[in-house]
Amino acid sequence: MQQDPDWFRNVAEYILREGLPTTLKLAAVAVIVSTVVGMVLGTLITIPFRPLRALIRLYIEVWRGLPILVTVLFIYWTATAEVGGFRFELSAFWSAAVGLSLWGSAQVAEATRGAVQSIPREQHEAASALGFGWVGRHTFVIVPQAVRRLIPPMVGLLVNIIQNTTIAYVIGVSELLETANRQFENLTLAGDGHPFVIFGFVLALFFLISFPLTRLAAYLERRLV
Amino acid sequence: MDIVFAAFDWSFIWENRAEIWSGLKNTLRAAAIGIAGSFLIGVVLGAARAHRIPVVSQLAAIYVELIRNTPILVQIFFLYFGILPWLGYTGTPFLAAWLSITIWGGAFNTENFRAGFEAVPRQFREAAYALGFTPLKTFLNVTLPIGGRIALPSTINTYISVLKNTSLLLVIGYAELTSVANHIQSVTFRTFEMFAVIAVVYLALVWTLSALVRLLEARLALPESR
Amino acid sequence: MKRLGFVTVLIALLAVGVAVTLGTAAPSREGAQEARLPAKPKLPALPAEIRNRGRWEIGVKCDTPPFGYQDTDGNHRGYDVEVAKQFARWAFGNANRVDYTCTTTASRIPTLLSKRVDIIISTITWTAEREQQIDFSLPYYGAVGRLLVLNQTNVGQLTSWMRGKRIASTSGSIYDRWIRNCFRDTQFQVISSPGAGVLAVKNRQVDAFMYDDAFLVGVAANDPGTKMTAHRFLNVPWGIGIRKGERPLKRWVDTAIAGMANRNMFWPIMRRTVPRRFYSTFRANVPSPTNKLRYPRATTPENNCPR
């Protein structure tokens, strides 16, 4: 195998064509699911009902406490079931998506809890006085205000999830790191792997995506909170 | 569910206990150095940033932004396959293991300590100057103890993340706990049981550390913030 | 007399010409046998699930040239992949009716057991221990284990050299077992892929990388800084992995492999996947009508420690 002098273009094209869309898709799914599930759980945990709070607290502590890699590996190897004659299994992509979402939703739940509990008592009292029940009060008064406080950390979470999609490499999802590593190995066997260029390229890609978002989060923190 | 558990053969855990224990030790080893290292980097660079020391402050800012905006896994690859071979390092993955998580944790800790130092009320430092303390003495006797305590929750969260990130080191062949689990399941094929066991171990470690955090927070937190 | 002599010479020349033509064709026994066989063997029925799906789901290597790897367009290539394609041709008439799942040495058996794939064609060496977990098809390749070292490394007698050295191989491989069983004083360094093993040698992070000959031959040939030592060990064939109890599938796969071997179809696949100068090295590794591979059922190769 000769080293193609044009090797970088081929490698970069492959990484961008195969890896980047998968990374973005994985991040998008995980962010959306984490946000929805997390906000629901984070609001529910404020209900003064012990068993429910304990259950949600357990969920949060487990999925935040485990390394995401261990969660993803565990799901990948156990998410197969046979019901009747129908076989069900999670693909590597969806195992990673579920694992990331479990972690992400636990983070969002904790942040939501903090935000909801930081809304002053008076808001609750005023809403009750106006005739809102618990659900109405939270839906129309409390949560919208909490959301404002949540936006900066949510942008931060988005950045975190984008970085953490690289964990999916370990179970073989063809995202940015996996595609880059595949090319690195092919090139190594052909003579020189060019690790600085290839992994530097991936670092640069992630930086270009994440840095603006981090700046945005800082800006929003100043403006909204 | 009882039927399910009975069908699992847990004896392989006992048979492989030496390897599992060795994996756990490696996890703790790398995490300990990572935590100590990130503490040192965080204090030094955080102080440089908070006091706006020229050159060092800017370089530290670049370091922080680079590390925080890129995935740790890619940093590990870059270090292990790029930098270390280029420097001619020929040892085991242990160096790359603790170095990569130290560099990662140090960046986050720099921000944690910077925020902590900057949150020390101005009047404390002014009082120290008035008493004739040099800037260094002020830092060591006033800013660091107080700022450090303010930063305590965020720094310990970083240390917990450093511990959890040791699981990623399996990609460079460092024989920590997750790597050991992967190896054992590849020869015993008891995949579910193996990962269930290490999940319990990680949770035990992380929850213990978190409980320690809460204890320390209660004891060491500043009176005002109680 | 002259005319008789002339005719004799003519006949002799003709005879020589015919003999040369016949001689340079494939060995006559193989050629005759191939010619007698129909293009496709009589295969038993495919299991219903695969038949209804219309596609194979096969686990292959994606990081181990020349057996399973991906090119820059993302296409799966290699010896194992060609076998998979042949199965698709014979099952569905189209070589593209396969969905490939990338597996590593550590993940291939769990991938099979968790039913993510129908079969695994994943450079898996037969061992008695593995046969307790999965069924092996008839052998489809015979590998030999080799050591890759830097050019300047001198390896004399294997057992004494191995003491105190760091040797890399993939997690769960037959080399993993063999080193841990037989070389207690050797430090085993797990690496996540064969490419990483090569790098570990080149970067001097390990003293040697132990792996299959076909992969290492390509590496040593391309890289002037590394070489294979002369030691050969663990000469055990590979099989296709099938879940236990799936008899119809095993019958289909075995019939297909036997059919490919009898029609000498493995050798052309090998020729397509390795450079010409390695042909002689690998001829004996592929099954053919004259080369039958067998699993060493009487021994446990990974416990077979050299003295």
Task: Provide a compact summary of the structure.
The complex is a heterotrimer of chains A (225), B (226) and C (307). Chain A is mainly α.
What does this structure look like?
The complex is a heterotrimer of chains A (225), B (226) and C (307). In chain A, 78% of the residues lie in helices and 4% in strands. Chain A is mainly alpha-helical and 225 residues long. In chain A, strand 1 (80-83) and strand 2 form a beta hairpin. In chain A, helix 1 packs across helix 4 (92-117) and helix 4 packs across helix 6 (134-164). With 226 residues, chain B is mainly α. Chain B has a single domain (2-225), classed as MetI-like (MetI-like fold, Orthogonal Bundle), CATH 1.10.3720.10. The longest helix of chain B is centred in the N-terminal third of the chain and has 34 residues, at 17-50. The relative contact order of chain B is 0.15. Chain C has 307 residues and is an alpha/beta fold. Chain C folds into two domains: 48-143 and 235-303, D-Maltodextrin-Binding Protein, domain 2; 144-234, 3-Layer(aba) Sandwich (D-Maltodextrin-Binding Protein, domain 2), CATH 3.40.190. Chain C is globular and about 80 Å long. The model of chain C is unreliable at 23-30 (pLDDT under 50). The chains are: A mainly alpha (225), B mainly alpha (226), C alpha/beta (307). Chains in contact: A-B, A-C, B-C. The A-C interface holds A 1, 10-11, 13-14, 18, 77, 80, 82, 87, 89, 171-172, 182-186, 188-191, 193 and C 62-63, 65, 69-74, 101-104, 107, 110, 114-116, 193-196, 198-199, 218-219, 222-223.
